[in-house]
Design goal:
The chain is mainly α. It has five helices and no strands. The radius of gyration is 20 Å and the shape is flat.
Length: 165
């Protein structure tokens, strides 16, 4: 039994050491915030005479703002890292960002799409509807996969890039 606890402790130490847990919790929090956007618009839509179409469109604008803001933020971060490390922008994008970034963005886009579908069906029925377990589990699983890739594969690719440069 002691050996099992040592293994569990080593697993948690590794997770904290390579920031998997931080990345996973941070991005799961972002998923929660994306769902909260639709919940806020549902609250608004039920209490005002606004049409379902208008409320869903306003929620969609919030999601579009989020994705555009993230694209600009990532672009600026890559540019800053590129200028400070003297690594070309494209190499950083392809080797360090895309492996996990595509999975993260897919998870965020799916969460926003599921949340919008939930918002529309809830507004149509006039009551809070259950979104379904897949609407939460699929994006959350993708976030955990992206955190695993970012905490394991990305540092490995960075070391390989530095060795070959």
């Amino acid at each position: 039994m002691l050996d099992l606890w040592e293994r569990v402790g080593a697993l948690f130490f590794t997770a904290f050491e390579n920031s998997f847990l931080y990345l996973a919790l941070n991005n799961l929090g972002v998923l929660l915030l994306l769902w909260m956007v639709s919940a806020v618009w549902l609250y608004y839509g039920v209490r005002t005479p606004a049409s379902r179409r208008r409320v869903c469109r306003l929620a969609l604008y919030c999601y579009l703002f989020f994705f555009l803001k993230e694209l600009f933020r990532i672009n600026r971060t890559i540019a800053d890292f590129s200028s400070s490390s003297k690594i070309p922008y494209g190499d950083i994008l392809v080797n360090l960002i895309l492996p996990h970034g595509l999975i993260e963005y897919l998870a965020f886009a799916l969460a926003a799409a599921f949340a919008l579908a939930w918002l529309g069906s809830s507004l149509e029925s006039g009551r809070w509807r259950y979104p379904g377990h897949r609407a939460v589990l699929i994006p959350a699983s993708l976030i955990l996969l992206a955190a695993a890739v970012e905490s394991t594969l990305t540092p490995y690719l960075y070391r390989i890039y530095l060795v070959n440069s």
